[in-house]
Amino acid sequence: MLLVTVGLLVVGAILVDAALTTLSLAGRAGPVTRRVSQGMWRLIRRLAGRGPRRHRWLRWSGTSVLMATFAAWVAGLWLGWSLVFSATPDAVLDQFGRPAGGWSRFYFTGFSIFTLGVGDYRPGTTGAQLATTGAVLTGLFLITLGITYLMQVVSAVVDKRTIAGHITALGPAAADIVRRGWADGQFAPMFTQHLTSLTPELVRLGERHLAFPDPRHRPDVGAVEPLSRALQQLLRTLDGSFIRTADDPVTAPPLEDLTRAGIPVTDAQAYAQAVDASRTHRCRLQGWCASDGWDETDPKLTLD
What are phi and psi of 111, to 5 degrees? Predict the structure, then answer.
């Protein structure tokens, strides 16, 4: 009876973890998924080491984490039902009606949860028959849920890369983006249109992470402010659940590049105050970069 209780608890924990990870909109993975993914990510980071070439390892981190998570679900479900079928000697019988051994029970559990329907072993009691039905149902549920989850994650990654490409097309750095958008004493309408189009993309990216940032010629901030709010909302979504805020903020872009380009800017004191006021936001940005394995030593895009 003890093995049945422990086995059902393991099965229940795996199902709850999978449901929390794939179906919950609270933005937090289940405890098993969280520990497996964090452990796998730390392992890959350690194997990758430091330096630009580490990204050859890190490019496989997402696939590795997903496969490790799915493997942990299957292994937990398999282990739980194996304990249930090991509770009594006659729970699983071979084709001659003899009690199956330990490995055979493990094998019987595997083809039950994977719904293979191999008939060389069969349940020997009424309780084992009910358990077999439960194993088939939970196995079908978990595998279907896992495959659906993998497809959703792939779709979210595509969205993330699309946003990255959209932003990179505007310019490799903040100052370059502003310089490109400035024309004839004002920001070009196409530039503000690009910023406006980024807002729903960032909001959608944040929701994806839950389901699964001048006195004389004041620019129109109608496109900039919603984009900034969307970026802050995205970082608040990631903070705690997905990233850890860094102690030091990301470096603020210098104003000299904009001044040389003839773009009116605020005075140095007001800019320094604004940078200091956004320290928490910039620390989140730095934490996001660090959590993805990026640092100041990585090569940067240039306009050359």
Answer: -75, -15
Segment of 45-59, 92-106, 271-285 carrying the highest mean pLDDT: 92-106
Every domain of the chain and the residues it spans: 2-154, 171-291
- Which amino acid belongs to residue 165? G
Return the pLDDT at 297. Answer: 55
| pLDDT at residue 176 is higher than 70 | yes
- Residue 301 pLDDT exceeds 50: no
d(CA 296, CA 119): 60
- DSSP state string for 108-145: HHHHHHTT----SEEE-SHHHHHHHHHHHHHHHHHHHH
Q: Tokens 């005075």, residue?
A: 267
**Rounded (10°) angle between helices 268-277 and 279-291:** 60
How is residue 199 written in tokens? 């807002």
Q: What is the pTM of this model?
A: 0.68
Please tell me what DSSP assigns to residue 250: P
Range list of β-strands (E), 40-115: 92-94
Give CA–CA dist 34/148, Å, rounded: 19
Within 124-265, strands assigned E span 182-183, 186-187
pLDDT at 292: 62
| CA dist., res. 7 & res. 22, Å (int) | 23
pLDDT of residue 235: 57
Of 24, 129, 112, residue with least CA distance to 74:
112
**Burial bucket for residue 190 (CB in 10 Å: 0-12, 13-18, 19+):** exposed
